[in-house]
Amino acid sequence: MTVSTCPVCGCPADPRVLALGTTVQPHIATLVRQEHPGWTPDAGLCPECALSYARRHAALRSPSSLHTASNPPTTFPYYHSGEEMVLAQPERLPDYTTFAGEGVTIAFLDSGYYPHPDLTLRPVWPGVTPVWRRLAPGQWRAVLQEAGLRIVEYVDLTNGDERVGIGTPSLWDGAGDSWHGQMTTAIAAGNGLLSGGRLRGYAPAASILPLKIGRGDGRIPEADIQRGLEWLLADDNWQRYGVRVVNISVGGDFPQAWKDNPVSRSAHALAQRGVFVAAAAGNRGVQELLPPAQTPSVMTVGGVDDQNRRWRPCVVDEVERLALYHHNYDSVVYRHTLVRKPELLALSCWLPAPVLPVSPVFQEMIAIDRVRQVLLDENENGVGSLPTYRQAGVSPATASTGGASVDGEAWMPEVWEGLRKRMNGHKWVHPYYQHVDGTSVAVAQVSAVAAQMLQANPNLQAQDVRRLLLETSLPLPHLVPRQTGAGLLQPALAVAAALRTGAGPLVGRPQSATVLGDSELHKMMLQGTLSVLSPQAQGTRTRPLYIGYYAPEARAVSLVGEFNCWQPGTLPLQRAANGWWHAVVQLAPGSHLYRFWIEDANHPQGLWRRDPENPNLEESGYADDHSLICV
Fold first, then answer.
1. Global pTM exceeds 0.90
2. Fold for domain 514-630?
3. Percent of the chain scored above 90 by pLDDT?
């Protein structure tokens, strides 16, 4: 094996790993260049150096938000002068990246929609990327249809009519009521195309069936929600379009017992047919649920505010920083059992969502970014001073991708103030995205994870999805019990459980990153071939850790981490049935960072991936995080 050396520390490093140095985070690359002026990301950066710089950067984060550091303050919290941005969904609640909802259709009931680029077939634009700011409304339609959309059909049921077809004018008119449905579909199934893939949803390959409901004045009476559900039930339209999940981000007119309410009875009928139905709890913070959220068979979703902060479910102090969103709540009795609603919580604040493309706001957001970039460039060139900026080691060049600081707004402060007012008016976080909140966005995350689960195990029924989501949720005992349900959505764990349920491909397999007892290890060794890897020095006290990776197309999978100097191939996993690769690794007590190295037909040299079944991560300095395990 050819051995290279890290251009920064000079230590030996595998050249395949060094090649991943091109994915170094921009703020980490700036830190490196400050100390090694001749270095460029193309030269690579070894994992130990990248991790060291990432930890130095993280140590500069403030324990409290810096959003009041500018005038006027930003509309969202952030904690580092070089990170005035909102975190993506997977950075806050890691998901099972192997599954993207492919082959599963999610139906949405909402006020309107628009076929955003994030809903196209691929996360990279096919061919030459359009200059988005120069597209006229008619051109948007042409380029999006040419790229291909994941919208299987479009149904407009507004004003008592029924219009079906992708060519229906209301799908493309860009009216104000189009924004909310565009937001919920992108939160669930957006591929993040306009953000380079970063601001994606959990089901970026799922198909979408949008049902537009309501009246021309923007109202959505309860009867119109009923029409949408009836359309899905009529002639088994839900089955015709492959609908396995229904997302309802709207609510009825007034509280009513679910058995007496037509909307709730229709939602229950869909659930009885095996469709997973999820509904927003509502945003008023009162003890009241509107149809269909009070329906026992509907998964009612409330919200959590994570303050736009990185956190890990294995760290109690970090979990206890989570706060409740002001969602509605109540209890219903079903089959002589009291059901507290919402049953499940998801992120409800500071979520990035696309701006409506064919709108004046879209053009203004791009103009804001261009002016902002000019101001930042002038400061970087010495017109203004940026002491905090440079101390943190972040380049203004990252501004347009969401990683810039404006602490040094010494140059043209009156322009900065006016610009910030416009940014705040649009909840600006990126040239093409704004931050949004509410149980409408929380329920969309749950619907997306349900689609992932159904791709992982198509044999699941609606009640299976519901049960596994609740069983794998993170309890939040520090919050009000009657408002938290089972706890917070854990996307990675829910999909891992789906793989091991019923006829799932991993039935009987432990979850990856499971620390085994002696009896469990002995039992597994008796069951058949299983590698036992020992990267620690002989005589070191160790504990057995079961690890596995689902990669049916792989021809080799190995474990890389701090314990083997990130060397691919030295700790190989064995192929088991159904595309599962696994091993037991003996590790010393303590915390360890690791990844899997996968070689397949598309990546003969290999690439690394974090453990999708382990939600505990640590920043790596690269574009994606390392997995973290404590044994």
1. yes
2. Immunoglobulin-like (2.60.40)
3. 81
